Structures are given as structure tokens and as C-alpha cells.
Amino acid sequence: MANITAAMVKDLREKTGAGMMDCKTALNETNGDIEAAIDWLRKKGLSKAAKKSGRVAAEGLVTVAVNGHQGVVVEVNSETDFVARNEEFQALARTIALVSLEKGIVEVEKLRDQHYPGGGTVADALSNAIATIGENMTLRRADQVSVAQGVIGHYVHNAIGEGQGKIGVIVGLESTGNAAALADLGRKIAMHIAAASPLALDASGLDPATVEREKNLLREKNASKPANVLEKIVESGLKTYYKEVTLVDQAFIHDPAKTVSQIVNEAAKAAGAPVALKGFVRYALGEGIEKGEELDFAAEVASMSKG
Fold it and tell me: Is 3 exposed, middle or buried (0-12, 13-18, 19+ CB in 10 A)?
């Protein structure tokens, strides 16, 4: 029997789109002959995924999973919104999120190689779903937030299943304070993040290239000003920019007269202990794949918070 290497399995998997275990079986059955293994998979109907792998998958689900002091957000894409409403697809996306949460793994390639409940890997489960449902699907991305103490606030916008929808948010509030009060605050801040779409927690978390681009824009708009005045304008403009794009400086969507930072400080008094925002993740389905017009999430989320 031929020695089946990981590189051979990877090569066959890339050529056919079939699951890793199916590729290994095919190679064993054909004594390591790649072309024969491709034919073997085709005969078994296991290479269907490859025929769909080139089609754009920009629909699907963003899934949030939280357990104690840790939370994950995972995006699994499909070609159509119709499939996103398929219970089998929802179960697939939810299970992948739970695997990510349990293993603490958010790197996509590592996550694809993790054991999937019921047998095989996450990658195998995706390939099987592609073959069964008939659409291209991709595990696009995953991220996590954790706190030593406190809560993980979470929110899903346009939910179509438990913890699943078009936008998913998790936010970490680290504190030894009252858990119930923190949970309520965490959900409200997560709703705010869904609506306001901050780029970073605070100014230090912004991409330096983004800040430099904003500086250059301000300089170009005020190029006629004297140099000493220009730098003051840039400095003032950056402060305004930070209020628009950093979470702690944004006007809180549930109480626009206050910033998120002020709301957190007030909540610390009610919770009986300091509260620190440790980080957040906001995923909007398909962003960067197929950019459409922005919906007015701010108005919709604000209306949902009333009462």
C-alpha cells in the first residue's frame, strides 16, 4: 500500500473540494494515484463541492456563542439567503461556533481541521453540506473576546435563529460587580456597537494608516491655512473623528447626551465595582465580499431598545 502523506491529501482536497477524510480514503483505495482518486471521488458523488467552489458566497449567517467569560463570533457564508434559513445550514453554523468556543480556536484553517461532532472535521462537515444542500459555502472568519471576571455582552441583529443573524456582536466587560447589572449593560453596549459600527475600542486601537489618512484629508481640506493653524485644525479634527469611530468616545445610542465611556463609569457605581471594556467583535454578514448600501441600523436598534 502506498504511503499517503498529508501533502497528497491536501492536494486532492484542493482539486476536488471533497472532505479530508474522503480524500484520504480515496487515496488509500487508489494506491496513492491522484487522478484515479479524483475519479473515485466523482463516482462516489463526493467531489460535488468543487463544482460550486468558484461561486460567490456572500449570504449566510453570523453566529454568536457565549459561555461564561468567553464569547465567539463566526461567519459562515452561503450563496443565497434561502439557504441561510435552512435548518441544516443553521445547525452547521451553530455547531462550528460551538467548536470554536470550546476549543478557543478562531484561526480559520485551524478551525477547519477541528473535530466536528458526529465524525470528521469541520471542513468535512462543510463539504458534506455543500454536496447535500447544493450551494457553495465557506467558513469565512471567526474571532473571540474573553474576560477574567465579568460578562460577555452579546447581540444579534436581524436574528433568524438563536444567536444567528445578519450582524453579530460580542463585547467584554471586566468587573467583579453585580452580574445582572453588567449583563444588561453588556447587551445595550452590544446593541450600540451593532448600530454605530465603531472601528476600535479607543484611539490607540485604530490602524495607524487609517489615522494618517484622516490627517492627510484634513490637511488637504485646509491647505490654505498657515502651518501653525493647520496643525491645530488637524488636531481638533482628529478629536472629532475619534468621537465618530471609537467606541468609548461615541455618543451612546440609547442616551446620546452621554458617551459610552460615561455610561460605563455610571454603571460601575450601580454594579458596585469598576467596569472596564476589554474589547469587542462586530461582524456584518458579507461585508467586504459584496458591499451594498448601509441600512439605518442606528434607528432600528434604538427603536428596539425602547420599553
Answer: exposed
